[in-house]
From TrEMBL:
Pfam families: Cas_Cas1 (PF01867)
Organism: Paenibacillus alba
Requisite cofactors: Mg(2+); Mn(2+)
Superkingdom of this protein's organism: Bacteria
Top enzyme class: hydrolase
Record: residues binding Mn(2+): E166, H234, E249
E.C. designation(s): 3.1.-.-
Record keywords: Antiviral defense, DNA-binding, Endonuclease, Hydrolase, Magnesium, Manganese, Metal-binding, Nuclease
Family label: Belongs to the CRISPR-associated endonuclease Cas1 family.
Entry's Gene Ontology molecular function annotations: endonuclease activity
Name of the encoding gene: cas1c
Oligomeric form and interacting partners: Homodimer, forms a heterotetramer with a Cas2 homodimer.
This protein's name: CRISPR-associated endonuclease Cas1
CDD domains in the cross-refs: Cas1_I-C (cd09721)
Role played: CRISPR (clustered regularly interspaced short palindromic repeat), is an adaptive immune system that provides protection against mobile genetic elements (viruses, transposable elements and conjugative plasmids). CRISPR clusters contain spacers, sequences complementary to antecedent mobile elements, and target invading nucleic acids. CRISPR clusters are transcribed and processed into CRISPR RNA (crRNA). Acts as a dsDNA endonuclease. Involved in the integration of spacer DNA into the CRISPR cassette.
Length: 343
């Protein structure tokens, strides 16, 4: 059980949520695991629940406390709310900003600030941890380029220009991606990003990791009442979760890229885990996919200190924390959206 701002996260599996006076009580096999006053909560988010009492749901509905349920894997299931007093205002604000490119750019640039900052510190950490195995001068040069682009992004209020700067930064970062692969170089190499279809083992893993991250971010956005399909940098397109793609920009490198690199460098995966189709597309075998998913779930349990909130949380809660901060910014509770800045 973890409280962040005015949101309570229930991460223990197979628990039952009940009401006792003005308190939420978390039970497992009739044993009381926790108890917390409800009077200052805005939302309750539960992963892998066995049930919630009608009394608790009624209490939350009457007091405008949203109750959201996810699977243990982070898939959004349902959101129980009372009268639409808050969500309609939040979503109307989201839609209004999305229609205005200038206002969209002011939010989108913070997503890109987070992305470039995190890419820079991935490179800097490589120079610290593996100075004898990489070209430190090359890494430092690209890091400096990212610092220059970071300054330009912070002052950018034009959406097309912002996309151009993001593209430049991504190209610079990916020029060094192959150098961060330290093991199994025969089977794992990176020349350029290939998506549909992925043309090598590394791109197949990156695409899978990005898909998992996008699903986790989409679920987190739905959990706070935002529309995952209406973005600020990524514009509307049928079937595309544009806001999820926006928010996950700052998490791609530190969450997905580092995860893929760790699987390769720790030799959790091997070249035998992949198949090449006649079209040239590379796919992961079923067993490798299961191994990947198990490692992904394990990664989500690892603890970090959130750089803005200063709270110790699991990696799996990071998308939820960012979704919560974005919602608070759109409600004017924050002066600016704080990106996730890892170091």
């Amino acid at each position: 059980m973890k409280k962040l701002l005015n949101t309570l996260y229930i991460t223990q599996p197979d628990v039952y949520l009940s009401l006792d006076g003005d308190n939420i009580v978390v039970l497992k096999d009739e044993e009381k695991l926790g108890r917390l006053p409800l009077h200052n909560l805005e939302a309750i988010i539960s992963f892998g629940y066995t049930g919630a009492s009608p009394a608790l749901m009624g209490y939350c509905a009457e007091r405008n406390i949203s109750l959201t349920f996810f699977t243990m894997n982070g898939r959004f299931l349902a959101r129980v709310i009372g009268e639409s007093r808050g969500n309609v205002v939040l979503r109307k604000k989201q839609y209004a900003i999305s229609e205005n490119e200038h206002l969209s750019a002011k939010i989108a640039r913070n997503f890109i600030v987070g992305k470039i900052y995190n890419h820079k510190w991935i490179l800097e950490r490589m120079t610290r941890d593996y100075p004898l195995r990489i070209d430190v001068a090359a890494f430092k040069a690209i890091s400096q380029q990212l610092s220059v682009l970071l300054t330009e992004v912070r002052n950018c209020e034009d959406l097309p220009r912002l996309r151009g700067l993001e593209g430049q930064a991504a190209a610079s970062y990916f020029r060094l991606f192959d150098s961060m692969i330290l093991q199994q170089k025969k089977d794992f190499y990176f020349h350029s990003r290939s998506r549909r279809p992925p043309l090598d083992n590394v791109n197949a893993m990156l695409s899978f990791a990005y898909s998992l991250l996008a699903n986790d971010v989409s679920a987190a956005l739905e959990g706070v009442g935002l529309d995952a399909y209406v973005g600020f940098m990524h514009r509307d397109r049928p079937g595309r979760a544009s806001l999820a793609l926006d928010v996950m920009e700052e998490l791609r490198g530190v969450y997905a890229d580092r995860f893929v690199l760790s699987l390769i460098n720790k030799q959790v995966v091997s070249g035998e885990d992949f198949l090449k189709k006649e079209s040239g597309a590379i796919i992961m075998k079923d067993e490798a996919r299961k191994k990947f998913l198990a490692a992904w779930q394990q990664k989500k349990q690892e603890k970090i200190t959130h750089p803005y909130l200063g709270e110790k949380i699991s990696w799996g809660l990071v998308p939820h924390a960012q979704a919560l901060l974005l919602a608070r910014y759109l409600r004017n509770d924050l002066d600016e959206y704080p990106p996730f800045l890892w170091k």
